[in-house]
Amino acid sequence: MPKRNMDVRNSVISLNLHLDAHCKWCVFLDRLQGKCAIVTGAGQGLGQAYAQALATEGAMVSAVDINYEGASQVADAINRGGGKALAIHTDVSDQTSAEHMAKETFARFGKIDILVSNAAIYYGIKRTPFDEIQVEEWDRMMAVNVKGSWLCARAVFPYMKQQKSGKIVNVSSGVAFSPNAFLAHYVTSKAAVVGLTRALARELGQYGITVNAVAPGFTMTDASKQLGGDITAYVQSLSIKREQMPDDVVGTVLYLCSRESDFLTGQTIVVDGGRIFH
Ligand SMILES: NC(=O)c1ccc[n+]([C@@H]2O[C@H](COP(=O)([O-])OP(=O)(O)OC[C@H]3O[C@@H](n4cnc5c(N)ncnc54)[C@H](O)[C@@H]3O)[C@@H](O)[C@H]2O)c1
To answer: How much is the average pLDDT of 123-148?
Structure first.
């Protein structure tokens, strides 16, 4: 394993990422050497795992979050490990902020090859009957989870179009295919991400840009833990009967960011241990 990649990995693991020390994606191939990736919502949870994995594969990473402190910690850890990362404070629901994210990334790294649109309102959501969800809460969910992915794709598009290549990976959820009750706003937003992914794939293929999505199952991040509930029955409903960890999703995201997926677009890959087949 190249020393730089080992250093990046160890440095970020020291941030208490929920990563298995023997994680399987740590077969470093330097698949993304020289590429530049933006990861939104990189300040914690799954976004943090994606940022680290992209860096260990050699990509320069913009760690983007509305939580600048979290993003900075992730970027610092990657830099300490010998990778190249930049933290950018961004509210993905704001057009000017999303455009600033792309501009800053290009100014620092000279290109934008990959966008992982992972930022979402997930931490802190509460199960609520659909007719009791506040209108403001519904609107904010759509603004971040749906409009945010659209605005970020829109912001990186001029750079990818110029380069005639790009990889956009949106983050949906298994709930888009098998919804939970009492999360109508979240479920709707994640189903919309599937539609956005398909619509953008149709438009952007002509520019050499692929647009795909990953739909994780219930993954043990801090956000999932605060949502609470007994997950014993859920785990039993999986084909692979164990809890899902962030590490279980990163391999698919790396694949969607790499040239191995160059002829795949408009697809949503469910990564959930074999619960939903679609
Ligand atoms: N954890 C799971 O079980 C699970 C399952 C399926 C899909 N997902 C999706 O994966 C992604 C990450 O999940 P997680 O568990 O790490 O959630 P999380 O809530 O811990 O992380 C979301 C990140 O997005 C950031 N964010 C929120 N609003 C933002 C905004 N307006 N602009 C920029 N950044 C913003 C947050 O600060 C946070 O760092 C989310 O899109 C979530 O919907 C998670």
So the answer is: 97
